[in-house]
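request received
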Amino acid sequence: MMTDFRQRAGVGLKSLLPGFLLLLFVFMGAAPLRLPWIENAAPPLVIIGVYYWAIFQPDLMPGWGVFLIGLLQDLLIGLPPGLSSAVLVLIRWIACSHRRFVAGQSFLVLWTGFVIMALLAAVLEWALFCLLEWRLAALLPVALRFLMAIMVFPPLVLWGLHPIGRVLSAGE
Amino acid sequence: MVKRRGAISIAGFAHPARELATRFASLLLILLAIMLMVLGKASPELVSAWRIALTDSLSPVLSILASPGQAVLDVADGVSGYFSLHSENERLLAENRELKTWYHRAQDVEAENRSLREILHFAPPPSASFIAAKVFAVPGGGFLNSALLSAGHAQGVKKGQAVLSGDGLVGRILEVGESTSRMLLLSDMSSRIPVILAASRERAVLAGNSDGKLFLAHLRPDIEVGVGERVVSSDVGGAFPDGLPVGVVSFVGPQGAVVEPYADPARLDVVQIVDFSALLQPEGNPPKQETGAGAPASP
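response:
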């Protein structure tokens, strides 16, 4: 009885892990890096997280959860609310519907898929921001953030998200 | 490096019906997000209130997460500082010699100033007070140049107040919460600050642009700006006190003069918010003259 409860509690806690990680990514994205050159180009870890969980564990990261994470990010970093939500929900949707092509393939395929998604997210974010603020925003920080995202993806996935994903799938 | 297939078991693939449900839910959520964006555009005050309520409640988490960034910077500074000790020492010695000269000049000027004020019965304006705050979040979006500060209404912060780092003006307060506030950096595209060229006493507006550069706008066309000229804040419009150091003119081209700010926005850690309400009298009246003047003005 007790072990059954513990098991269930363990599974419950594990299922919260993707959401918790995304929260952490949002906060890390807002924290000041204070590094020269990349002060405005903190890697958009949230997009990596959303893409990854959409492919490997979509049930643990529902659309409304992604929506709320995006909203939190917008409010925290000062973007028009709803902007990140729209972009992240779209990324999750596309990644979910293409997961059968990507999951189970080599890491290179996974990465290539992410490069396309990150590019789409960057362009969409920029276009939506320009539209909402009715002014042409600088492209350089957007390009820098995109480059940071695709460079951070391999180490974050191979040493961070893959091991966590293994723990999560072991509990099933 | 390459992960082989089957390294991670994949949660079961969705049935067509479930996929349809996902698609419907996603579309609904994107629609909701678009509605939010429109709502945010329609009533910015509401969004501002949400934002400040959220950052107020999250400020403990944010201040904890801001610390590692500072630690990394400290280590980087320590390492690079070690290799440049000698040149740094030379530079400081030279600077010290120069500063000593300036110190004596300043003492002479101060003494002269005091005697002139005594003749005029001039009352020194009350000095501004400062509120110290920590910078604990900057946007990673790259679109906006703003930062979250760890002081709000409770500490006496008000909208529009000037924010200084140790080197000079960095921005102004945009939104104020109970214990946090948001600052708009000088380099933001929407930032406009009234300034004065220190040497010529010409007025201009310091504006940010999309590349994060600062340039002088609304300058009289017949005014020649020289590289190296100091730029300080102006009290035109009553938003800022006079004479806060801003930067120096670093480049003059056909597009106008570019100003290099004294403060490096990438390295903000602790800032000072200037409470200059004592300096600016209500209704914009100049400070009343009092007798018994002659005390040196506070810096």
